[in-house]
């Protein structure tokens, strides 16, 4: 009797497991929809107005220069950044690329569009990567940065390069970065935060190198160590959860005028393995359109003096304009 009933039990257990799985997926999709609607409701109630929200640079490629290099201090800037910046050609088109691509523009195009913080992950062979997928050499990124610098005069770039999780540091990578970017590099010095852009010129790159095992850059050296660019990233695909987490962690930071590091907020959400939607673009769209709402809420909560690096997937001009607008308001004293 007992042995004869085993197949029936196994079949029943499988059906129960499948039922539980599909039930969890339905509940998950309901939760995502609920959080998307919650952000839409907040937008309708609060709007997108904040100090500088009406500002539109005449030329996003040179938006810092427009504000005046002798007026803009490093700590006053709201730095528009891109998340996983060098993933425009990662993976195989239509096959693996949708699962890892966070930007469709090249690094040069991002900078020309107004981005000023670039986030690059590398592996041991100096190739850019995102998780297990690798793409072109980091040489491509550096060539794009150098090209942008050659075409502008007063734009400062924060270039973050880190060894991707699960990979080893490229050999002697710090020396390689200095060789490639030497004359452009702003040495590691906490006095930089209160200097104007004009005082930094002609050097215009703050390069933060985050190795896994190699020695960290030291004060006075051409590269900056990991502690000078911080964030509190959480791994979620829920847009309101990420939105509120960003506000909460930002509120715990000192004001930019008192800070001796850059603090980043990422207006992104991340695909989760237990969710049927695994492609980056449709997932990150859940929060992408609420960047201006985030800034508006930050000011409404009295945290406007804490916003500094603000990053996104698939950067666009409106995102850049919002960051440039707050920067202008700070310089004008209207925040």
Automatic annotation (TrEMBL):
Positions in coiled-coil regions: none
MF term (GO), any: phosphoric diester hydrolase activity
Domain Phosphatidylinositol-specific phospholipase C X: 80-191
PROSITE patterns: PIPLC_X_DOMAIN
CDD domains in the record: PI-PLCXDc_plant
Cross-referenced Pfam families: PI-PLC-X
Protein name: Phosphatidylinositol-specific phospholipase C X domain-containing protein
Organism (species): Zizania palustris
């Amino acid at each position: 009797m007992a042995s004869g009933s085993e197949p029936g039990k196994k079949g029943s257990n499988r059906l129960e497991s499948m039922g539980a799985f599909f039930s969890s997926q339905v509940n998950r999709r309901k939760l995502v929809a609920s959080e998307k609607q919650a952000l839409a409701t907040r937008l309708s109630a609060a709007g997108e107005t904040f100090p500088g929200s009406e500002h539109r640079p005449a030329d996003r490629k040179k938006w810092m220069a427009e504000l005046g290099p002798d007026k803009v201090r490093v700590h006053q800037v709201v730095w528009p950044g891109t998340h996983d910046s060098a993933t425009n050609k990662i993976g195989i088109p239509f096959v693996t690329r949708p699962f890892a691509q966070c930007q469709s523009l090249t690094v040069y195009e991002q900078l020309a569009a107004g981005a000023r913080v670039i986030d690059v992950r590398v592996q041991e062979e100096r190739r850019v990567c995102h998780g297990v997928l690798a793409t072109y050499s980091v040489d491509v990124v550096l060539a794009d940065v150098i090209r942008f610098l050659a075409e502008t005069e007063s734009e400062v770039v924060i270039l973050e390069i880190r060894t991707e999780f699960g990979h080893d540091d490229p050999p002697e990578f710090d020396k390689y970065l200095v060789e490639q970017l030497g004359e452009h590099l702003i040495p590691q010095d906490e006095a930089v935060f209160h200097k104007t852009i004009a005082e930094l010129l002609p050097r215009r790159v703050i390069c933060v190198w985050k190795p896994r095992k190699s020695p960290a850059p030291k004060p006075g050296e051409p590269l900056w160590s990991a502690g000078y660019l911080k964030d509190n990233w959480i791994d979620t695909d829920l847009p309101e959860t990420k939105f509120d987490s960003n506000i909460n962690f930002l509120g715990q930071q000192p004001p930019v005028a008192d800070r001796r590091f850059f603090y980043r907020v990422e207006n992104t959400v991340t695909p989760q393995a237990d969710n049927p939607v695994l492609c980056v673009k449709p997932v990150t769209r859940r929060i992408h359109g609420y960047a201006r709402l985030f800034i508006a809420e930050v000011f409404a909560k009295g945290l406007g003096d804490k916003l500094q690096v603000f990053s996104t997937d698939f950067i666009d001009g409106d995102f850049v304009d919002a960051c440039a607008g707050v920067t202008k308001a700070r310089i004008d004293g209207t925040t």
